[in-house]
Amino acid sequence: MTLSIDHFYILVGLLLAAVAIMNLVDRSNPRRVTTALFWGLYALLYLAGEALPLAAVGALMIGMALLAGFGGVKAGQPKALAPEARQASAARLGNRLFIPALLLPLVTVIGATLLKDVQLGGLPLLDPAHITIVSMGCGAVVALIAACWLTRATPLQGVREARRLVDAMSWAVVLPHILAVLGLLFSEAGVGKAVAHLTTTYIGLDSAFIAVAVYCLGMALFTIVMGNGFAAFPVMAGGVGIPVLVGVYGANPAVMAAIGMFSAYCGTLMTPMAANFNIVPAALLELPDKNAVIRAQIPSALPILVANIFLLYFLMNL
Amino acid sequence: MQSAVNLWPLLGVVVIVVGFVLRANPVLVAVAACGVTGVAAAMSVMTLLETLGAAFLKTRNLPLILLLPLAAIGLLERFGLRDRAQAAIGKVRSATAGRLLIVYLFARESTAALGLTSLGGHPTMVRPLVAPMAEAAAEAQHGPLPQRIRYRIRAMSAATDNIGLFFGEDIFVAFGAIVLMHTILQAEGIEVNPLHIALWGIPTAITAFVIHAWNLRRLDAEIARAVLDEKGAA
Predict the structure, then answer these.
(1) pLDDT above 90 as % of chain B
(2) Of the residues A105, A134, A156, which one is the last residue of a structural domain?
(3) Whose CA is closest to A15, among B56, B78, B71, B57?
(4) A300 domain-assigned
(5) pLDDT in tens, B210-224
(6) pLDDT band at B4 (very low <50, low <70, confident <90, very high)
(7) Where, by residue number, does the polypeptide cross the bilayer (chain A) (predicted)?
């Protein structure tokens, strides 16, 4: 039997269903019905997504977005331990508190490296197509068990705490998902081709330095628009990198590729479209400014991008 | 041939840019852009809904990395994980927020370069450990911090995780991005050793470390200045 990503879809579906129910019965949540509906729909799409017609899934996604967009998703005020009780518990448990927290990445890494090729009865133990996520799912379960054992709390308390964190992040939880959908729609509708057409048609590429600058800046800009360097790379490498840098100026393709991808990553650091790296952490760290992480990254991303232009220019013909 | 390129789908990009500039709710902006892009690409409502639905199911793996660890992390927080992390860093006299984050940047970037990308991350490391420790280090050095400086330190903690991850993972030869680049070059008839793509990433990886570490050193100065201003105003 293979532990596959579908098992963790069910687990997350159940978690989201619990978040929905806990919000529905929580009178401290000012919008408890719409909040429960939002998380309930998300749970449904994890638990029974395959069973629904595709158009219904699309319609439910739009329904969720409207609920979130018009302020229907709010948080309750769950009971936390009093600060004194929490500090007493921290003093009592001491450094043992770190054990479950470190077990999580440890189990993930062991699963993704050592258990990657392990087979049981001719089938792989962990789904090879989603090895990191499945390993992390195992790590999360192991860490939860260890945390319950250490703190004598029930797994239900763990679910309550997960709900507290999900509530705090609110709609930011689904933003990366919806942006990924938009990214796929963009490539289907040919947005990539249109942008590549604009950059290559209207910009002169008649000096090596300008060509390098257009290539690196194009990577970053395209990634800012699409939110994903993997979407930018084929377009800019196909439009400028291969025909101009390699074809005309004799660049080493390995250098062109490596530094091009890193230029795309500079774009990732500067765009709200890369929500899972930039917007979700702002919500997770309870920052009032949702763009605070992007603001913190721009002073590093821009100089790295400029450095990339010079590195590519000087290294590509070595 | 050039006239065959359809520029209308770019309207979706315009919606995104305008939406973010007007600071509309990002979820609404994204869905509006989906609608506009679909119309611009001449899809029928049914086709558009089906395309969206298929894409939504296909990308359900994305939120798992965020959602799965929350129960364990939340439980540990309830019983004092963050307090413990802060107490531990408070004992290190030479620790400052900037220095701590430089150490984390180095650890994150070098482990990612060895393919161990899941050793960090926002829900598993930054929220429960890195950000509280950076705040506590600054607090041990300067006393109570203004709230906006706390937010600034947290944002820099998240930024450090991202930068360490991005510029480390791409010099690990088995990483997806290297495979993608190799495949695309191969499709264009260019044969490159994936190891060379990974190695030519190293100059940028080092540059990124130096630039971000420099910004983290400036963070310490910024904190000191802000605390001083606060005291002057009081």
Answers:
(1) 63
(2) A156
(3) B71
(4) yes
(5) 999 999 999 999 999
(6) low
(7) 6-25, 55-76, 97-115, 130-153, 165-187, 207-225, 232-251, 257-280, 292-316
Residue A32 · residue A76 · CB < 8 Å: yes
Which ranges constitute the DSSP H helices of A152-269? 155-169, 175-189, 191-202, 208-226, 229-236, 253-268
- B chain contacts of residue A295, beta-carbon cutoff 8 Å: 155
Tens of pLDDT, residues B37-89? 999 888 899 999 999 999 999 999 889 989 999 999 999 999 999 999 999 88
Backbone angles phi, psi at B205, to 5 degrees: -60, -45
Q: For chains A and B, what is the number of CB pairs under 8 angstroms?
A: 432
Residues 24-43 of chain A with CB under 8 A from chain B are none
Place of tokens 């005309």: A248
Q: Are residues B91 and B124 in the same domain?
A: yes
Looking at the 3D structure of chain B, how many domains does it have?
Answer: 2
Looking at the structure, tell me whether residues B79 and B168 fall in a common domain: yes
Q: What is the pTM of this model?
A: 0.89
Q: Which of A65, A166, A292 sits opposite B155 (nearest CB)?
A: A292
Query: What's the CA gap between A214 and A199, in Å, rounded?
Result: 8
DSSP characters over B154-222: HHHHHHHHHHHHHHHHTTSTTSHHHHHHHHHHHHTT----HHHHHHTTHHHHHHHHHHHHHHHHHHHHH
Rounded CA-CA distance B141/A132 in Å is: 39
Cβ contacts of B181-185, under 8 Å, gap ≥ 24: B181/A233, B181/A237, B181/A257, B181/A258, B181/A261, B184/A233, B184/A234, B184/A237, B184/A238, B185/A237, B185/A242, B185/A253, B185/A257
Three-state DSSP at B11 gives: helix
> Domain span at residue B147?
64-233
- Whether residues A153 and B75 touch (CB distance < 8 A) is answered with yes
The verdict on a CB contact (< 8 Å) between A186 and B84 is: no
Residue position matching structure tokens 């992480």: A293
A62 has a pLDDT exceeding 70: yes
Give the residue from chain A lying closest to B111, CA to CA: A109
Q: Which of B37, B58, B79 is the last residue of a domain?
A: B58
DSSP string computed for A288-302: SSTTHHHHHHHHHHH
Query: Do B131 and B16 reside in the same domain of the chain?
Result: no
Q: Provide the pLDDT for residue A192.
A: 75
CB contact under 8 A, B68 and A132: no
Average pLDDT of chain B, as a whole number: 91
Residue A232, domain extent: 187-315
Please judge whether A182 and B81 are an interchain contact, meaning their C-beta atoms are less than 8 angstroms apart: no
pLDDT in tens, B17-27: 898 888 888 99
Nearest CA among A276, A117, A23, A234 for reference residue B61: A276
**Chain A residue with Cα closest to B186:** A253
